[in-house]
Amino acid sequence: MPWDTVAWRIAGWDTPLWSVPSRRAGRYNRAGDPATQYLCLHPWGPWAEVLRWDDRRTEREAAELSSRLWSVRVGLSAEPRRITFDDAPSLGIEADDLVSEDYTVCQDVADEARAAHQSALLVPSAALPGTETLVILGPRALTAWQVPPVDVEVDVPAAVTADDAGAPQAVLPHVRWRGTAHRGLADWKTGTSADFFEPTPTPLPTPVHIRV
Predict the structure, then answer these.
(1) pLDDT digits 0-9 by tens, 112-149
(2) Residues facing residue 155 across a β-bridge
(3) Please, which residues have CB within 8 angstroms of residue 102's CB and are 6 or more apart in sequence?
(4) Is residue 76 in some structural domain?
(5) Does 99 map to a domain?
(6) In sequence order, what are the residues at sequence separation of 6 or more whose Cβ sits closer than 8 angstroms to the Cβ of residue 29?
(7) Does residue 210 lie in a domain region?
(8) Phi and psi angles of residue 61, each rounded to the nearest 5 degrees, phi first
(9) What is the pLDDT of residue 40?
(10) Selection from 111, 100, 92 nearest residue 32 by Cα
(11) The whole model's pTM is what?
């Protein structure tokens, strides 16, 4: 059955999508693997990923970050395989492996998915617990947002949502920093896991007054 969603990614280029083999290893790809797309299913997901990658833990460090945010309309010919912490044993792995700092096991999972001709995976976000990341296992090409894809297995409509955008300050307390426990995994282990819900309304950052 066809499947579609809207996702988000931060990419400071003229496209948020890869069409050539990956030059750098990621959680679900090794360097040199076919192009692999990582898209967040929550708007805060890309900011959590970048803040975590850059280790920007303070409000001032986060405020210094600016980048290009994309919205991406994903259409797939079939529903992606969803892998949750509950599913880990059926894959012969531990739940911890899905959000580990060691990507080796997840890369093996992706290898098996490619071998089985699966085009995409839905997996727990390592950076924003309680949300998911869509991993597309293969090259994709950018098309205009309002143009229907000719081939959903290749064409992906996307548009720049903001240039020189900054991370929401309210996301900081929810980021899972490298070397720290994953709250979603910890909750799952106690049987209290839940989806992530951002504060509503999102608090505005406190203005910084500079005396001259």
Answers:
(1) 999 999 999 999 999 999 999 999 999 999 999 998 89
(2) 141
(3) none
(4) yes
(5) yes
(6) 22, 36, 107, 110
(7) no
(8) -65, -40
(9) 98
(10) 111
(11) 0.93
Residue 103 main-chain phi, psi, to 5 deg: -85, -5
For 41-87, how does the pLDDT look when each residue is reduced to its tens digit (9 = 90+)?
999 999 999 999 999 999 999 999 999 999 999 999 999 999 999 99
Give the Cβ contact number of residue 118 at 10 Å: 15
The answer to whether residue 69 is domain-embedded is yes
Confidence at 205, pLDDT banded by 50, 70, 90: low
Residues in CB range of 60: below 8 A, 6 or more apart: none
User: Which amino acid, residue 73?
Assistant: R
Q: How far apart, in whole angstroms, are the C-alpha atoms of residue 4 and residue 178?
A: 31
Pairwise CA distance, residues 77 & 119, whole Å: 9
- Residues contacting residue 184 through CB under 8 Å, at least 6 positions apart: 85, 99, 124, 129, 130, 193, 196
104: Cβ–Cβ under 8 A, 6 or more apart, which residues?
A: none
Q: Which of 6-20, 132-146, 179-193, 197-211 shows the lowest per-residue confidence on average (mean pLDDT)?
A: 197-211
Query: Which residue range(s) make up the domain with 8?
Result: 3-189
Structure tokens that stand for 102 in this block: 């060691």
Report cis status (omega within 30 of 0) of the bond before 207: no
Q: Could you tell me whether strands 120-124 and 81-82 are parallel, antiparallel, or unpaired per DSSP bridges? A: parallel
Helices (H), ranges, the chain: 45-54, 59-63, 104-115, 183-189
Q: How many domains does the chain have?
A: 1
Phi-psi sector, 130: left (phi>0), alpha (psi -120 to 50), beta: left
